[in-house]
Write a structure and sequence with these properties.
By secondary structure, the chain is α+β, with helices and mostly antiparallel strands. The chain has four helices and 13 strands.
């Protein structure tokens, strides 16, 4: 398993080693011990979500306020998608920077997204399904939504026709407006949350 840091500090792309024979294939999708070694703190799953999307569906950019904070480990389990993460941590050396990866079900490739970093994707096939392994449970009223088509971010979604997008995402504020409104966590808050939340939940 190869774990490589992205252009967004603290976010990683995880590529498993595939083992194949005449029966098919096998790979390890998540190794908590290896991920912990890289992160410097444990990633403790608290909730697992799935979403299924038609081709050309755009979801995001989504995040969670701090507190409670939420790290994500995302994997495409059916179809294919263009995955984009955005650094929303005010004061981060990479604030506003993004990372793009194509995730396909057969590859097992995953992305680890730390607290304070936004996430979204464009489905590239019909019935694309993504799995989210989350470090915290859903808390109503804590979701942060950023306009995925914000011209200041200019994210390279790569669609050739208008995407399917929810009204909530289409009317979300851009990065500049979200920062001015005080919606975003600071780099220090996100870093502190990652360590304290993991330690507390590891002991619970």
């Amino acid at each position: 398993m190869r774990i490589a840091e992205t252009a967004v500090p603290g976010a990683y792309v995880v590529t498993p080693d595939q083992h194949t024979d005449e029966r098919g294939s096998f790979f390890e999708g998540l190794r908590a011990d290896l991920l912990e070694t890289v992160l410097g703190h444990p990633f403790v799953p608290r909730q697992v979500n799935y979403s299924a999307s038609r081709r050309n569906t755009l979801r995001g950019i989504h995040g969670v306020t701090i507190p409670p904070g939420q790290a994500k480990y995302v994997t495409c389990v059916r179809g294919a998608l263009r995955d984009i993460i955005v650094d929303l941590r005010v004061g981060s050396p990479a604030f506003g920077a993004y990372e793009v990866n194509v995730l396909e079900a057969g590859s097992g490739r995953s992305v680890y997204i730390p607290e304070g970093v936004g996430h979204g994707f464009l489905s590239l096939t019909d019935d694309t399904c993504i799995c989210y392994v989350l470090s915290s449970e859903y808390v109503p009223g804590t979701q942060i939504d950023i306009d995925p088509l914000d011209p200041d971010l200019a994210l390279p979604w790569g669609f050739t026709e208008p995407p399917l997008i929810s009204r909530k995402d289409a009317t979300a504020p851009g990065l500049r407006a979200a920062r001015s409104a005080g919606m975003l966590a600071t780099w220090q808050e996100a870093t502190r949350c990652a360590h304290t939340t993991a330690a507390r939940k590891a002991l619970s």
